[in-house]
Amino acid sequence: MGRRLLLIGHDYLAAGGIEERFVQRGYDVERVQVVPPDRFEDPGVDADLPDPRDYDALLVLGARWSVYSDEVASWVKPELELLHTADEAGVPVLGICFGGQMLAQAHGGEVVASPAPEIGPHVVAGVPAVAGVWTQWHYDKFVPPADATVVGVSAAAPQAFVLRRNLAVQFHPEVDEESVRGWVEDGGAQMARDRGLDPEVLLEHVASLDADVRVRAGALVDYFLDDVAADR
Predict the structure, then answer these.
(1) What is the set of active-site residues?
(2) What average pLDDT does the segment 51-64 reach?
(3) Could you say which architecture CATH assigns to the domain 3-175+213-228?
């Protein structure tokens, strides 16, 4: 049997080159979607989350909601408890955007509204696996836990931190032009315009990065598994 990866999605499950690399590294992927599509307008569902100790690693994806929003408190609290359990058991967790914010919230940091939201590709500085141009789509930012090691930053916000066997990233290494187009068509076009961006130009920029980002997404998973997850 392969190793087991639990992929937790909140409003989407597509993980692109990130999931692809986990599979290449011998992981069998099991998926849980917290909020079904027919509840996106009323996301206060009762969470039915598995025991993280039954898995070899966790991948926690983004979400359209805020960690601190009352409308998702019904499942944010149990998911934070899941992340605590995983950490105590030494199960490695890679959190992306909302997932990274959840890691911050779970382990003594916090999540706050960002004074400088990032939409579209932005430059991130940091360790080699994190540094580069990554697609962003967030209005909140995490404040890393005091005992975390920050391994990535942008001009607007912390972008990545490591804490024990947890890696949190604020950017979206899993997306490509197709997935971002879905966000644009699902209300994101106006969000982009509100930031002074032309949605089609933004999509062209994302598309120009697709091939490179898929390779770098693989390198990010390798960093997570070989450096972060290996550190006990």
Answers:
(1) 97, 172, 174
(2) 98
(3) 3-Layer(aba) Sandwich (3.40)
